[in-house]
Amino acid sequence: MSGGSQARQGLSRFALPLCVVLLAVAPLVLSPFRLGLLAKYLCFAIVAVGIAVAWGRGGMLVLGQGVFFGLGGYAMGMHLKLAEAGAAGLPDFMVWSGVEELPALWAPFANPVFALAAVVVLPGAVAFCLGLLVFRQRVRGAYFAVLSQALAAAFVILLVGRQGVTGGTNGLTNFSSFFGLDLADPAGQRAVYWITAAALVVVFAVARWVVRGPFGRLLVAVRDGEDRVRFLGYDPALVQTLVFTGSAVAAGIAGALFVPVVGIISPALLGVAPALELLVGVAVGGRFSLAGAVVGAIAVNYAKTVFSEDFAEGWLYLQGGLFVLVLVFAPRGLVERAREWWAGGRAGGAGGSGGAGGGVTGAVRRSEGVAG
Fold it and tell me: What pLDDT digit, counting tens, does each position of 58-88 carry?
């Protein structure tokens, strides 16, 4: 194994412990407001991990993650609204909309167990059924991207048109508590941050375990040679469906945590533009690296917060310019570019003869080297 490969694997080994340490230190150095912003960025990072697996490892350009983010968010929001309204009450927006009786769709979400299960099961079930229908028909590439984009747009239209059930364009807002935690109290906000950080660590660890195992290698094989995998007796459509389902579950969990962190879930957060912003973050950090996807999602959303305060009208241009620059000068993402620079320094120019490898062996080494 070359010095460059050893350096890359060394960095991958330390990615998760370093992430845990940084997340643990954040509450000690950040104000409650900044800690709340970081918690919001972590929600987007959870979605980014699922995108990195589906897009980077599986070659599926997912533009409809807002649907699954919204399903998880609305499932959690519905439960919190019912908990605040009490046994015989109605959510505030229903009262304003003239609704006199709780819709049957809302009734099961009064049960916290049902709501928590729905956060995972609902996005997963929708993604699994959609994946089977799409991948069995061998819909790939740009066609799959357009289809997922259309699904997100249709979902937003559905939410906006059902004012009395979903809150319309305003969505669900004004959450005061989260399973006994007072969201107006800094202690409650810190607790929600810890829950969000723990969810990110768990999702990251599970995703890394998947991509580094036999299933991860099978997923890369499906991406690079689907017909060959089929001839070997595997079902590529099922493999892609399972990965698509996993990324949807991650998005659903992120959406559910976004509700107590930010205090709102609305159609404006679920459309095509937010999905593109998530993709930009993953591309900037590196779609072939789980750590890169996390770093990219946090960095891009932090930049959005900072620059949009001073350049409200020009932020989109800055974001687009950053995306183009990364694609031109670091097509594998900034984290992988940093790894290459670090590996080059560690190798000291001695790894040129055997570091890169050739053919299939080199490709597998490079692919495994960026799995973390």
Answer: 888 888 888 899 999 999 999 999 888 876 6
How far apart are alpha carbons 123 and 237 in whole angstroms? Answer: 19
Nearest to 80 by CA among 162, 193, 181, 168: 181
pTM score of the predicted model: 0.85
On whether the CB atoms of residues 289 and 371 are closer than 8 A, the answer is yes
Whether the Cβ atoms of residue 210 and residue 278 lie closer than 8 Å to each other: no
pLDDT of residue 353: 43
Could you give the count of Cα atoms lying within 13 Å of 321 in the half-sphere of its Cβ?
6
- Residue tagged 């019912």 (tokens): 82
State pLDDT tens for residues 229-260.
Answer: 888 888 888 989 999 999 999 999 999 999 99
Largest CA distance in the chain: 75
CB 65 within 8 A of CB 247: yes
Tokens 């917060």 correspond to 305
Q: With contact defined as beta carbons under 8 Å apart, do 36 and 118 qualify?
A: no
